[in-house]
Write a structure and sequence with these properties.
Elements (H helix, E strand, L loop, with lengths): L1 H17 L17 E3 L7 E3 L2 E20 L4 H5 L2 E6 L6 H4 L2 E6 L2 E6 L6 H6 L1 E8 L2 H7 L7 E12 L5 E3 L13 E10 L1
């Protein structure tokens, strides 16, 4: 009997630790505005963890976290330990999101619908997969506290990352693209969960 009780306790703890938490807000748009992007006045490259980071544009966004995926393997994980799929406008409205299946894998953000709650193009232009490159340990700590459904605000730069061996990782500079190369690579300098 004691062994069964121990197994039940471990199963309960495992379910509690590994079940994805989600923040719910109820119906309505919770992040109305489009991201703000401007070309930086001085775009000086800098070194970080053995890579050269070149700012391409200043970037800030207030958005709802549609999904979060952590990474610990691969070259990109050295710089970006997690990605957020973010939504704004109608893609921050729970009544819309409840009709869209959203997930992430392999540094991609994917979605699926049975029937479109809003036009397909609006889903594509009001949500994006964003690779988070924390500028310091405090930012990384805050990024790792984020849950699905959180409303976040961040400021930083869209960047291009290069290594001496020719490896590159470059941010998209528009929210209108889709597919390979459409993700934002963000050097996150300021971050908060609202």
């Amino acid at each position: 009997m004691k062994q069964i009780l121990i197994i039940i306790v471990f199963l309960g703890l495992g379910f509690w630790f590994f079940t994805e938490e989600e923040v719910r807000h109820g119906p309505g748009v919770v992040a109305a505005d489009d991201p703000i992007q401007t070309r930086p006045i001085s775009a000086k490259s800098f070194d970080f963890k053995g890579y050269t980071i070149k700012p391409l544009a200043s970037f800030e966004i207030k958005a709802r976290v549609l999904s979060r995926k952590d990474y610990s393997f691969g070259r990109e994980a050295e710089l970006s330990p997690l990605d957020f799929a973010l939504g704004w406008g109608n893609m921050s409205d729970e009544t819309i999101l409840d009709q869209i299946k959203i997930w992430q894998s392999g540094r991609w953000y994917r979605w699926q619908v049975k029937q479109f709650p809003i036009p397909r193009r609006e889903i594509e232009t009001h949500s994006a997969n964003m690779h988070m490159l924390p500028a310091n340990e405090r930012i990384e700590y805050l990024l790792k506290k984020v849950k699905k459904g959180d409303i976040i605000e961040l400021k930083g730069h869209l960047v291009k990352v290069e290594a001496d061996d020719g490896w590159r990782w470059k941010s998209s500079l528009t929210r209108k693209d889709t597919g390979n190369g459409a993700c934002e690579v963000i050097w996150v300098e300021d971050f908060m969960i609202l």
